[in-house]
Every structure is written in structure tokens, then in C-alpha cells.
């Protein structure tokens, strides 16, 4: 029983951190732009494909694997610049419905592009050799890759929290998010800050794609399966709140993992019950952000 | 929001003539088209009703559902099961239950969530509920799990004095045309009634609507119920037409369809969703041979419409007509 609990805990934490890697960019860009980017999962998927194309199915070492993830982050960040210039920039002052629908269209567009370039087949990528062995914890075997994903999630969370709360860049971003007009009058280049935030969010999606590509089979729909969890986490945690999203991701991961272990015949249903409970109990999320809809 | 055509309360004579000609053509279609094209025309009718149901919510009440396929699936799976397992119910009763079932689910969601949740929360909630429904269906052997519910028979309607045998494609098609015209007429009446004007008032400014004494939450729920019920009816009509209901109809992509059709045709006009459904049928018929291409085109068109022509095809036509008539006045 304890070994099963340990297994559920670690698996849950690992999926929770995987959700967080995807949700972090989503909630960040929402906090600043007030746009819920439905295409975020699709850009995560592009990041995963880019890593697969550069790094291949068998990364030689952990450094190659990390390097590839960084390149994927840069590439998807550059795509973010393009997307911002062509699409998102024009959606800043319109009704949020238009932004939702346009990013929905963008998601379909990216999935179609992925199908055209890489086909609809599934690919498998292995973790690098340094991470591809099991360790024994509490009577059960956990893959080192699982521990690595948990650690990466924690590091990304810590870095985002530090940037938002302790640095000059974070203060500027919060100022722009709270009152763009006032931020402009005190000399902050608001369009530039917004563009930087979008690029950072996309780069996070690309990095998540590179880190998580050994986690599951790669297909054009991999983004859609992750983004659903990311949405749920963002809603449960409070739109725009990184801390809330982080906690919500851990909750979702553990609930999902317990569901899969103890009630396998009804796999994947518990998180919807959890979402419903939170929507009724705390419709604005655990940590409501200011200025959300 | 942009608003031009939707509030015009009456149909012009030329509009009525156009509709009559179109309906006559639709009735004659089985004699004019091959079976493949006839199937597409039938699907376009069903998609038109589905898109109209979505647009009642978005274009008229200002609420966006991103999981409307869930309602469609409720109607389609219920009707499919009723015909397949030969429930002892007349077909009209099956249709009525499907529609009411959709409305009831909308009422439950509305009572629990709609009072507080609009906009982005509603979008995420509707997506999540549709995914949950898809999970539930995939666990239910009677509904075909992953494989879908196949070999659904077409109904024979017993009207007491005589029977309507709809088992033949052409007969069911004509039934579909009549049903679609009736549903569309019903929605037209809703939009142009006092209720429809109340929906528009809420969309324009929910706070002011509240000040003049409109119970905004209640009317949002009513709009959601009519929309959900109509979407379920569209699904109910589709099950005997396609003769198979699958999980592909219960996901994100399926939920995009009414959104795309409404925006493509023009969500500011009552008729926009129908024009959009027809235009989309033509596009998808042409791009069928290229996998991935349809998503690229659909997604690209959606983004382009939002950025360049948020009022859709009908909005563009209206703009063009105004420009032409203005030039005519000058000359």
C-alpha cells in the first residue's frame, strides 16, 4: 500500500509539473495581456516536434537534450514574435471573444501545419541515457526522468516567481498589466513590454515541448491533450496567477494519478469532478488575479 | 460589438422570394444531385441549424460556448440509441426528448455556472464538460465506446391514419428539409420577438440591461437552453442521416464547426450561419484529398475573418452593396 501511495505521489507530481510547464506560459500571458491563448498547446506541440527534428529519437546525452530544448524555446519564441506581429497585436483592444476565436483558429492552423510537415504518425523519443534508469523509493521504482521533470517544474516556478516579485522586469510587467495607460505615461514602452511577454510565454511553451517530448508519444494532437489540463489548472488556480496555477497543477496531477491507479476503469474522470467542485466552490480560482474577466 | 443587419425586424420581398426559391430547390435536390452531393447538402442543413444555435448564444446574447458539440452529441447519441435499440417511442417523441434533453443539460449548467461565469470561464467550462461527456461515452458499451454507434436505422413515423416511411434516403432527406425549415423559422421568430430583443440588450450592455429591470442571469440561462436544445435537435436529425455517431463528433474540432460557420457567414446577421455552413461545405469538399490542409484552411480562414472581416461574408456583401449604391447616387 505505501509503495502504491509513493508511486501515485511521484507520478502525480510529475504529471502536475508537466502540466505546469505548459500552463506557466499560458497563465503568464493571460496575466499581462488578458488574452487566453487557446493556441498555446499547439505551440507547445510545435516545440516538441522541433526538438524531435533536431535531437532525433535518441538524445546522446543530457546536455544535448537540454540544448535542444533551449533551441526549441528560441524557435518557438521567434514564432511568438511573428504571431504577435500578425495576429495578437491586433487583438489587444477588441472584445475578448474575438481573441478567443482567433487563437482557436491559430490552434487549428498549427495542428494542420504539423500534419502537413510531420504527418499524422506517432513518434517516440527516449530520455537521454543519464535520465533513463529507475531508482528505488519507498518500495517502488521511479524513473529518474520523472524526478527530472519534477525538478524542472520546480525550477521554472521558482524562476518565474523571482522574476515577477523580485526584479525590475517583473515590476515593469506588473505595472503594465495593472494599468497600461499609466505605465505609458511614466515612460515605459508598453508595446515593447507586451511583445516581450508574449515571446517569453511562447518560449516557455517551446521549452516545455523540448523537455516533455520523451514523456509521451508525439502526434499533432499532443498539444490538445496537454492544453486541456493547462486550462483547468489556470481556471482552478485563478486566471493570471502563477502561484495558483502551480498549486492547481499539483492537485490535478495527483488526482489524475490516483484516479488512474485506483479506479483505472474510469480513468480521467476525477479531474472533471474536481473542476466542477472548484467552479462551484471558488469560481474565481484559488488566487484570483486583478482585472480578470 | 458590430451590429448591422440582425435587428432588421422584417424580411424584404426579395428576401422572401429568395428563400422560397431555395426551399423549392432543396426539395427537388434528390432529382438533381448524385447521392454523394445530396449527403453533403443534408449535412449542410444540419450544420446550419447547429451554427444557428451557437450564434443565438454568441451573436445575440454575447456568450461564447466552446463545447457546443456536447449538446449536438447528446441529441445524436440519444436518437441513435433510440433507433438502434428500437425504443417503443414515436420518432417525433424521440426528437422532442432529444431537444428537451439538450435544454435540460443547458439549464443545469446554467443554474450552476452561468450566473457567475461568462466569457473565458464559460469557454473553459464548456470545453471541459464536452471532454467529460466524451469520456463518459467512451466508457459506455451501449454507446459503442471508442468505435461509435453504427448501423442506425432510419425511422418509420406512425401518424395513426397513415405511416411515413423514411427508410429511403430521399424520403428522409425531404423530411430533413422540412424539419430544418421549421426549426429555422422557429429560431427566426425567437430572435425577432421580445425575447430576442432582450438577448440583444444583454449582449450590448449587461449592466444597463440590469438597470432597466432585466433579470440578466435568467435570460442568459434561457438563451443557453434554447441554444443547447436546438443544437441537440440538430444532432438528433443527424443520427439517422449519417447512420453512425462517433466520438469524433464530441471534441474540440466538432465544437469549432458552428463557430467557424457563424463567423464565416457573418454572426451579426441571422442568416450568416447558414451562408457560412454552405460556404464551408464547399471549401471542405474541395480540400478533402489533402490531410492537414483542411485544418490549415479552416484555422487560417478563422484568423483571417476575425482580423480582416469580423462581420463575415454577409457583412462584406453588405459593405459592397452600400458602396455600390452610394456610387449610384452620386452618378
UniProtKB/TrEMBL annotation, chain B:
<feature type="transmembrane region" description="Helical">
    <location>
        <begin position="121"/>
        <end position="143"/>
    </location>
</feature>
<feature type="transmembrane region" description="Helical">
    <location>
        <begin position="36"/>
        <end position="58"/>
    </location>
</feature>
<feature type="transmembrane region" description="Helical">
    <location>
        <begin position="263"/>
        <end position="284"/>
    </location>
</feature>
<feature type="transmembrane region" description="Helical">
    <location>
        <begin position="91"/>
        <end position="114"/>
    </location>
</feature>
<keyword id="KW-0812">Transmembrane</keyword>
<keyword id="KW-1133">Transmembrane helix</keyword>
<protein>
    <submittedName>
        <fullName>ABC branched chain amino acid transporter, inner membrane subunit</fullName>
    </submittedName>
</protein>
<dbReference type="InterPro" id="IPR001851">
    <property type="entry name" value="ABC_transp_permease"/>
</dbReference>
<dbReference type="Pfam" id="PF02653">
    <property type="entry name" value="BPD_transp_2"/>
</dbReference>
<feature type="transmembrane region" description="Helical">
    <location>
        <begin position="172"/>
        <end position="191"/>
    </location>
</feature>
<dbReference type="GO" id="GO:0005886">
    <property type="term" value="C:plasma membrane"/>
</dbReference>
<dbReference type="InterPro" id="IPR037294">
    <property type="entry name" value="ABC_BtuC-like"/>
</dbReference>
<dbReference type="GO" id="GO:0015658">
    <property type="term" value="F:branched-chain amino acid transmembrane transporter activity"/>
</dbReference>
<feature type="transmembrane region" description="Helical">
    <location>
        <begin position="12"/>
        <end position="30"/>
    </location>
</feature>
<keyword id="KW-0472">Membrane</keyword>
<keyword id="KW-1003">Cell membrane</keyword>
<dbReference type="InterPro" id="IPR043428">
    <property type="entry name" value="LivM-like"/>
</dbReference>
<feature type="transmembrane region" description="Helical">
    <location>
        <begin position="65"/>
        <end position="85"/>
    </location>
</feature>
<feature type="transmembrane region" description="Helical">
    <location>
        <begin position="296"/>
        <end position="317"/>
    </location>
</feature>
Amino acid at each position: 500500500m505505501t509503495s502504491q501511495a509513493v508511486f501515485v505521489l511521484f507520478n502525480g507530481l510529475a504529471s502536475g509539473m508537466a502540466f505546469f510547464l505548459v500552463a506557466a506560459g499560458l497563465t503568464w500571458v493571460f496575466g499581462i495581456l488578458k488574452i487566453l491563448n487557446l493556441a498555446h498547446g499547439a505551440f507547445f506541440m510545435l516545440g516538441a516536434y522541433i526538438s524531435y527534428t533536431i535531437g532525433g529519437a535518441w538524445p546522446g546525452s543530457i546536455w544535448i537534450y537540454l540544448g535542444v530544448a533551449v533551441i526549441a524555446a528560441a524557435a518557438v519564441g521567434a514564432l511568438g514574435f511573428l504571431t504577435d506581429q500578425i495576429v495578437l497585436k491586433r487583438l489587444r483592444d477588441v472584445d475578448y471573444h474575438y481573441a478567443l476565436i482567433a487563437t482557436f483558429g491559430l490552434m487549428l492552423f498549427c495542428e494542420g501545419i504539423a500534419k502537413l510537415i510531420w504527418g499524422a504518425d506517432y513518434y517516440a523519443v527516449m530520455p537521454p541515457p543519464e535520465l533513463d534508469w529507475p531508482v528505488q523509493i519507498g518500495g517502488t521504482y521511479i524513473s529518474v526522468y520523472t524526478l527530472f521533470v519534477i525538478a524542472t517544474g520546480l525550477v521554472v516556478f521558482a524562476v518565474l516567481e523571482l522574476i515577477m516579485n523580485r526584479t525590475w522586469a517583473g515590476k515593469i510587467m506588473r505595472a503594465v498589466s495593472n494599468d497600461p495607460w499609466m505605465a505609458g505615461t511614466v515612460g515605459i514602452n508598453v508595446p515593447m513590454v507586451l511583445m516581450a511577454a508574449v515571446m517569453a510565454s511562447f518560449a516557455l511553451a517551446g521549452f516545455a515541448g523540448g523537455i516533455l517530448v520523451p514523456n509521451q508519444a508525439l502526434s499533432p494532437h499532443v498539444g490538445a491533450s496537454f492544453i486541456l489540463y493547462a486550462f483547468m489548472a489556470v481556471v482552478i488556480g485563478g486566471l493570471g496567477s502563477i502561484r495558483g496555477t502551480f498549486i492547481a497543477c499539483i492537485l490535478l496531477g495527483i488526482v489524475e494519478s490516483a484516479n488512474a491507479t485506483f479506479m483505472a476503469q474510469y480513468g480521467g474522470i476525477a479531474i472533471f469532478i474536481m473542476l466542477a467542485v472548484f467552479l462551484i466552490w471558488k469560481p474565481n480560482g484559488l488566487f484570483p488575479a486583478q482585472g480578470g474577466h | 460589438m458590430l451590429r448591422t443587419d440582425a435587428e432588421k425586424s422584417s424580411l424584404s420581398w426579395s428576401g422572401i422570394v429568395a428563400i422560397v426559391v431555395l426551399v423549392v430547390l432543396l426539395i427537388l435536390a434528390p432529382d438533381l444531385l448524385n447521392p454523394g452531393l445530396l449527403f453533403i447538402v443534408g449535412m449542410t442543413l444540419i450544420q446550419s441549424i447547429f451554427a444557428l444555435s451557437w450564434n443565438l448564444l454568441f451573436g445575440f446574447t454575447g456568450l461564447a460556448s466552446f463545447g457546443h458539440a456536447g449538446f449536438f452529441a447528446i441529441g445524436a447519441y440519444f436518437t441513435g440509441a433510440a433507433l438502434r435499440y428500437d425504443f417503443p417511442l414515436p420518432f417525433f417523441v424521440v426528437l422532442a426528448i432529444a431537444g428537451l434533453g439538450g435544454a435540460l443539460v443547458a439549464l443545469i449548467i446554467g443554474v450552476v455556472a452561468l450566473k457567475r461565469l461568462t466569457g473565458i470561464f464559460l469557454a473553459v467550462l464548456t470545453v471541459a464538460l464536452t471532454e467529460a461527456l466524451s469520456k463518459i461515452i467512451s466508457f459506455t458499451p451501449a454507446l459503442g465506446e471508442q468505435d461509435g454507434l453504427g448501423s442506425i436505422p432510419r425511422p418509420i413515423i406512425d401518424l395513426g391514419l397513415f405511416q411515413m416511411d423514411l427508410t429511403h434516403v430521399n424520403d428522409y432527406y425531404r423530411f430533413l428539409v422540412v424539419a430544418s425549415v421549421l426549426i429555422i423559422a422557429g429560431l427566426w421568430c425567437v430572435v425577432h420577438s421580445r425575447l430576442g430583443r432582450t438577448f440583444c440588450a444583454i449582449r450590448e450592455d449587461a449592466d444597463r440591461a440590469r438597470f432597466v429591470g432585466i433579470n440578466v442571469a435568467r435570460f442568459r440561462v434561457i438563451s443557453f437552453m434554447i441554444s443547447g436544445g436546438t443544437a441537440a435537435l440538430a444532432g438528433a436529425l443527424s443520427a439517422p442521416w449519417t447512420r453512425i455517431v462517433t466520438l469524433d463528433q464530441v471534441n474540440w474540432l466538432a465544437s469549432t464547426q458552428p463557430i467557424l460557420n457563424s463567423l464565416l457567414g457573418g454572426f451579426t446577421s441571422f442568416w450568416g450561419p447558414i451562408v457560412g455552413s454552405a460556404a464551408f461545405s464547399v471549401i471542405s469538399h474541395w480540400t478533402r484529398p489533402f490531410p492537414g490542409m483542411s485544418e490549415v484552411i479552416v484555422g487560417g480562414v478563422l484568423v483571417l475573418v476575425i482580423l480582416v472581416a469580423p462581420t463575415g461574408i454577409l457583412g462584406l456583401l453588405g459593405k459592397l452593396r452600400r458602396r455600390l449604391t452610394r456610387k449610384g447616387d452620386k452618378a
